[in-house]
Amino acid sequence: MTVGDGAGPAISIWDPANPAQAAAADAFVRAQDQGTPFHRTAWLRAITQATGHRSLLLAALGPSGRIAGLLPLHHVKSRLFGNALVSTAFAVDGGILAQDGQVAHQLAKAAEALARERGGLPIELRGGMAPGDNWDRREGEHVGFVRPIAADDEAELLAVPRKHRAELRKALANPALTAETGRSARLLRDHYRVYAESVRNLGTPVFPASLFRAMLDRFGEDADILVVREGKRPVSAVFNLYHGGRVMPYWGGGLSDARRLRSNELMYYRLMGHGRARGMTHFDFGRSKAGSGQAAWKKSFGFDPRPLVYHDWSADGAARDVSPGSAKYQRRIEYWKKLPLPVANMIGPMISRGLG
User: Fold this and answer.
1) Most buried of 106, 204, 209, 268 (most Cβ within 10 A)?
2) Which residues make Cβ contacts (< 8 Å) with residue 347, sequence separation at least 6?
3) Residue 354 per-residue DSSP state
């Protein structure tokens, strides 16, 4: 499909699995200050590989064939949660990336046309440029946390507010706690074991293990894992992405002992140092629900929240409801927390695939 009215770039559908198109798209993303890991074809292809949700790129092309804007999309299909076009699936960002508002508007119109062609699907844009006046704007539901990485470990420690710094010092003084970073199969297994138990305790279905393997494969050196151990036992773990000078701890968690050990504090502190050693300049702590305990915890670590803006569109005004804060999911969340871990790990991936 190509969409264009002669007033600006034409919009074409690109395939993230096409090597030439993927290379051009990734070069454009890397050149944009607002580009994120979720705009990259590595993300699109890893999600498709692990979940089956088909991906595509809407590319705005000028007369010379140069890219003026991109909108990455996943066609998420779920019997439980409904179908939608999502930019991008399982991400906290990845919306319209364009050189100006006119191009952003054209990409949004092309997405609307595509949604109608596919049966009137709703569209969900996470972050990115504003798509147009006929879209619903959601602001303030989630907040993001980003700050510069300090010059060295001591400066990083002093950047943490005093009360939380005292907790971190306790973890640093614990000789039983060690941190390891890398991309090995062992670290991947340790991460999944810790992460699966952590999200079960929060009442959330765990993602399939294949998702994390696919992300490591597709992102290469721009992804790794950090695990904190008490002796030989993994107690905290986080999967990290690197893009545009930022280190982003994305999928992380800890066992029930993590609070007593302060191992999560140690994990993120060590990751800041690891990011600095890799040449990263900023630490992106990701998003949290506004007013949540998680948001307060990140703020106590020395990060200031900033509101995130998302946009929704549907032909009939009916959007998907996949928010864990929704009243209709509260009873299910409490039930899920009580499931034996082997049961949660067995059925969780079948459910989480549809969340997108």
Assistant:
1) 106
2) 205
3) T
